[in-house]
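During the second half of the funding period, the structural biology subgroup turned its attention to how the target accommodates small molecules. The most pressing case was coenzyme A, which had performed well in the primary screen but for which no bound structure existed. We therefore specified the complex as follows and requested a full 3D prediction, including the ligand pose.
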Amino acid sequence: MMKSTESNIKILFEPKSIAIIGASQHKGKIGYKILENIVAGGYKGKIYPINPKGGEILGIKAYKAMEDVPGDVDVATIVVPAEFVYPALKGCAAKKTKFLSIITSGFSEIGNVEEEKKIVSFARENGMRILGPNIFGFFSAGVSLNATFGPKEVKKGGVAIITQSGALGVAMIGKTAVENIGLSAIISVGNKSDLDETDLLRYLINHEETKVIMMYIEGIKDGARLVGILKEATAKKPVIVVKSGRSKRGAIAAASHTGSLAGSDEIFDAIMKQCNVQRAENIKDALEWCKFLSNSPVPTAENAIIITNGGGIGVLATDACEKYGIKLYDDYEALKKTFAPVMPYFGSAKNPIDLTGQAESSHYSLAFTTSLKNKNISSLISLYCETAVFDIQNFEPLIEETYKKYKAAGKPIVFCLVGGEKVEECVKSLRRRDVPAFNDPYEAVSCLGALYSYANYHGESSETIDKPKLDVKSIEEVIKKVRAENRSFLLSNEGQAVVKAAGMPVPQSYIARNIKEAADYAQKIGYPLVMKIVSKDILHKSDVGGVALDLQNKNEVIEAYEAIINNCRTHNPAATIDGVEVSEMVPHGTELIIGARRDPSFGPIVMFGLGGIYVEVMKDVSFRAIPVGRREILSMIKQIRSYPLLLGVRGEAQKDIESVIDSIIKVSGIIESCPAITDIEINPLVVYEKGVKAVDARILISHLK
Ligand code: COA
């Protein structure tokens, strides 16, 4: 069943009538081009050009004002200069228009924010939704509506494109036509003053004609909402994203381009993986993936095979398989049994299956049929290097027929043919008929890789996410005290109280106000011990001699107490000193770091890594958006390069990964349940064979909520 916004957006994609406010007789104007495209596209609904001069445009009656149009109008495309957009809305409201597609530039993207806000609020008050402004319009194949000023010819098919960049969007319409990629829709969101990619995605999830969704994103305004919809979308169909602003310079350009901020690229990347979104580096790859994924069956298992007539190209494809995460079938005995009867005796049945340079199309044919029949082979990469002995004229029909058979059997297949003019012609001709043929092994393999990457997650049941049990009241009390003292950071004992309230094991510790108390606490805890100054005026405790480690007896505790107080007084005589923390010195284990913060684009996110050099030098960390379930957390832990250290190296036992997962859930829970906390970092969290200990927690709060 359709949700209400979804059923409303259906009107945008399938309007019964469309007005073009600013339609013009002048061929050079955008208002002419849009009308021309609507007419040429074959739209069957009612078309109402609006122009103060009236008359006829392209043989269609033009109305002097919206108010003159008979009956209601579902969609109005507005293509008049910026200062005339707001006045035009009255007429749209009078005609009960549901959607406005505002082509006009000159609003928030150049700082004209107020005018844009005025338009949005008038539209909201009158039940109208806005696409844009600053867009090239939209195309909807279902009703043959090309309400864009892009190319006239748009091939219909199964790919829907949502783009933030208008110019790139127009270019993509042209490019898809050249590449023979069929579109179900292409929509530009421009300034996203009202409708954004999330609204459109929500509709496209259940849009039957759309098999694959591609998004070009520059910046994200409400990432947390987008994440939820992306997860829903990829459970049904592949979503491919190209996001510009990867480089720091690119991010600045993107930010100034559309007035929205590009989030940190690492976080974006991690969150796209979490949502099973395939991220392409460039438009070319994205379009290739779209075409392939919209035409190809989803593989049901791993075990791909490569069939080749050349060793070199086979190795290149093998490298590409590793890069794109494709697992090759490597049971040599089984492969030999399968392929030995169908290949030249001097060929090789090791995957890549090398039919040798002497192979003819008949050898390929046998190998294709054998692989198709073999249940253990889930997909095929067919490679061909031009040779003089090869009968290319027979190969093209064989490839096309094979592709169809594989598709019908639910097995993906890609073809790569490298060679001269005849070979290039063959590739072009196959591509025109939607056969996945390429002239570079990396391109072919990258398409299959994107499909596998999608398929590996697809079908996994969505996770139920456990909410950790937190003592929120105790945490709020700590925050209240910190706020009362007008601080935005928590002292280490306060941080410890917060993580303890989340149920995380912390070292036993007490705050001693004098030497006697220090000695008594030391006795209570037992040795070895750690002592640290507790003062809001001394943040870098070690630098000023405010920390003593590995204290073994009472005398050392007394000496350390005196030394810490003296050092800190000397460093900052005015500092308010609350006391000295006496803590259990935790045994040696593997040091981890768990952090969580509120990302400006995606809301709460959690980070995981190994402590020390792994985080500081190697930046070996992984991110996920919160909420996150156990399975996803495990993938986050496995994602870091230093993961094998947790499994135990050099005879060490495996670490307690389940307790690490619990800790990540608890840290996520703290930031989710306490809106005042903006940043939390447990560093180190020491993990043992059994259990963990949160040694130090740095927490920041905001005074806004
Ligand atoms: N109702 C209906 N028509 C109106 C009107 C109104 N209230 N006010 C003006 N018009 C008519 C004009 O008379 C003109 O028709 P004409 O050619 O018959 O005289 C037509 O609307 C267009 O107005 P004009 O002043 O000629 O503007 P323009 O065509 O030069 O430019 C835009 C209008 C919207 C294209 C321009 O302002 C703009 O924003 N361009 C950038 C678009 C863009 O790049 N968008 C992002 C893409 S990614």
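Two results from this model are relevant to the next phase. The radius of gyration is 32 Å. Confidence is low (pLDDT under 50) at residues 254-263.
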